[in-house]
Amino acid sequence: MAHSGLQILGFALSLIGLIGLIVGTIMPQWQMSAYVGDNIITAVAMYQGLWMSCAFQSTGQMQCSLQATRALMIVSIIVTVAGLGVACMGMKCTNCGSDDKTKKSRIAMAGGIILLLGALCAIVACSWYEFGSAIFIAWAGSFLAVLGGAMLAASCPRGKPSPKYPIATSRPPSSTKEYV
């Protein structure tokens, strides 16, 4: 049947990946650029995140404009949370769902596949941006969600176990047996 350790490790990695996705989604440093003019007073750093674009000036002033058009990371987080919920019901170490071990492992596999889909959404969203610190956190979260989802998906048995029958053995003819 499914290995409990593999399921627990996959769930834990996916949970850490979800935290990374949430942190990466919230941070505004998805794309960074800086402009330093002839004078130190004109130094400007630009940050572009999923939700806002900010200009940080060397004087300490920060101006931001909000962008609420990036829904793919939110879809990724929602799908990942749903995948964690499904995987939790199918894990061998929980009492949720069915008592049938094959059915539980298939539920865990379905949760792993849902986690893989959520991670794929995040990877697509991360790949559109240039490098910033938030993108690395989101990539790490996506990688952990892929790893955890793959572990949960791999924890399902390949097929129905074959029944164990006693092996038939032949005995050599014996002269000590009496036939009636």
TrEMBL record:
Q: Name one Pfam family in it.
A: PMP22_Claudin
Q: Which UniProt keywords apply?
A: Cell junction, Cell membrane, Membrane, Tight junction, Transmembrane, Transmembrane helix
Q: Name one GO cellular component term.
A: plasma membrane
Compartments, as annotated in UniProt: Cell junction, Tight junction; Cell membrane
GO MF: structural molecule activity
Keyword flag Cell membrane: yes
Record-annotated membrane-spanning stretches: 6-27, 39-59, 71-95, 107-125, 131-154
Asked if the record carries the keyword Mitochondrion, the reply is no
Principal cellular location given in the protein's record: other
How the protein sits in the membrane? Multi-pass membrane protein
Q: What does it do?
A: Claudins function as major constituents of the tight junction complexes that regulate the permeability of epithelia.
The family annotation for this protein states: Belongs to the claudin family.
What name does UniProt use for this protein?
Claudin
